[in-house]
Amino acid sequence: MAPDGTVLVGCRDRKLYAVDAAGALRWTIQTGGPVEAAPCVHPDGLVVFGSYDGVLRAATLDGAIAWERDLGAPVMTTPCLDADGRLWLGADDGHVYAFDAGGAMKLRARVSDLVAASPVCDGAEVWFADSTLRNTAGRAVSLGDDPVVAPPALGDDGELYVGSWDGKLRKITSSSVEWAVDTGGQIYGGAAVGRDGTVVVGNRAGVVMAIAPTSEVLW
Length: 219
Hints:
mainly beta
């Protein structure tokens, strides 16, 4: 959502839509591929998003394209912002990228065969996951053999909750797995962390589960 209340939605019809607070369509941007991930709204007022055509785009809040960068591989991740305003994202070529608000590439690093999980920033470091959870300080935590497409969720105390295709939700603290709860189905979407620390996650088996910070299944 933009600061003025505009809701921004990417769709598989290859378009990004902007809808105002009253539900009226403001503008659309046509891309060359499905827009699978939500856009990021930069503090400078740009809407930054990728699509399956391999292009990272930045648009103004009026829907005008500010810049485009062809990454050469589908983008299924939502960019996240670090403390310096840089945009971090992963692509299907296994690389992690960082751009400034003007579209200048600041980093391109290969970390795996596929980066489909959106990165998150904990205020100091950027975390990104495939079958391993890594951050920009060089820390790494193995998440098993199955790929991860769900973005890590950040708790108030800096812990991370990561779901995987193996159906497990893992709590990561101090660069180690504190616990893993088997939900019984592949996890594609990010978990939500409540104010009391309860973690809610859904899976492809059609189950929504609430888990306490201690790993107890509440419902």
